[in-house]
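Re: the request from the purification team.
They wanted to know what the chain is likely to look like in 3D before they choose a buffer screen. I agreed to run a prediction and write the result into the notebook, where they can find it.
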Amino acid sequence: MGKVTGFKEFDRKTEAYRPVELRLKDYGEIFTGDHDEPHLQEQGARCMDCGVPFCQSDDGCPINNLIPEWNDLVYNDKWEEALSRLLKTNNFPEFTGRVCPAPCEGSCVLGINNPAVTIKNIEQAIIDKGFEQGWVKPYDVEFKTGKAVAIIGSGPAGLAAADELNKLGHSVSVFERDDRIGGLLMYGIPNMKLGKDVVDRRVNFMKDCGIEFITNVNVGKDITIQALQQDFDAVILTTGASEARELPVENRDAQGVHRAMEYLTVNTKSLLDTGLADDSQLSAKGKNVIVIGGGDTGTDCIGTAIRQGAKSVVNFELMSQPPIDRADNNPWPLWPLIYRVDYGHAEAQLAFGEDPRQYQLMTKSFTKDENGALTGLITVNVEFQDGQLTEISGSEKTWDAQLVLLSMGFVSPEHYVSDDAKIELDDRGNYKASYGQYQTSQEGIFTAGDCRRGQSLVVWAINEGRGVAKRTNEYLS
């Protein structure tokens, strides 16, 4: 695949983001949108004839993208054919090409002793070119089964299930409690990383293919699952894992302590509704901001706070700083647990002169004034000894803060839908169903995505959405 000696001749070079000083002035995507085709063909040439492509194995891409095939096609300037191969496994490459952390690159065979192939860049370029050239066209469903399926939740799992079931001839209706379709894609990921025009483009495409979308309907509250079952032959729950992990410390009730997803959702909705003219109470403008917890969501909070005009932004991480290179206990093809500088970190470096991350810190309590407003928090340094977390005596520190954002992950879906459906939960509080079967404890009710497996990647949501569609189709047949 690619050029036989390409990995020897060409160095890895990713497509650059927009300059930091420019992108901080707006909420536009960090990507330039200008794909340099000769450059990408050269990068595709680096794809090795590796025998066993771990990039599309279980250690790599969860949806088994045919990566070597479309790398080779791009190298040979066959972009439309590359798009055809890409769409065989991935319903939404415009999403994964932007927000997926690319486990495929972590397991790339070239990555054993060289920088991996720029798979993610090439994937995004293929689908962007496909839309630009008009190669992505609504499909006609030749045969209708007469069966109807209701999907609850319009995140990536729900959308993937809807797309697959619609292609199979079933009538599909997607219910969303928010005012816009997309779930996590719409309100959980800020515009800088995933433009909402990109989400809307895909949703409108799916509408043109015959899928029905119903917003502002909170199933389990506005309408019961039992009522839906009167009109639909099967129900699929793809509600996501929106119950955030808490930080139960003193003065948690201080005004100014918010969950990260609440903060990101309010800001994105304000941006889309009024162009930020409604002066959200959750603005970071002029405030010292502390983000507790790393990961993608923490980075998104950093980038958003800087754009809002934060006075300062600090990011607390409980773990120690990762190494620059793989540790001995983190071998290929496992995901490389290494130090990375994401877009928000680079923006904080420019805005405030240093990386915002502070490692091995545990929050002990918040502080507030007589009116209940947040004034700061108290931390202690920690270390791990024999797998145990230990506080370092005498390392307590008080931090000034008027806005704290909790970005510590999610523990489970909210349970009002499962209560209404009367389905069983697993020991983690997720909707109980086995992988590959997706059948809940109630006949005709299936589930997939984060609400079944726990918080995970967008690409895993697509995997499960495709899987639950296959299983639901077997049930309906």
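For the purification team: The radius of gyration is 23 Å.
Please add any questions underneath this entry.
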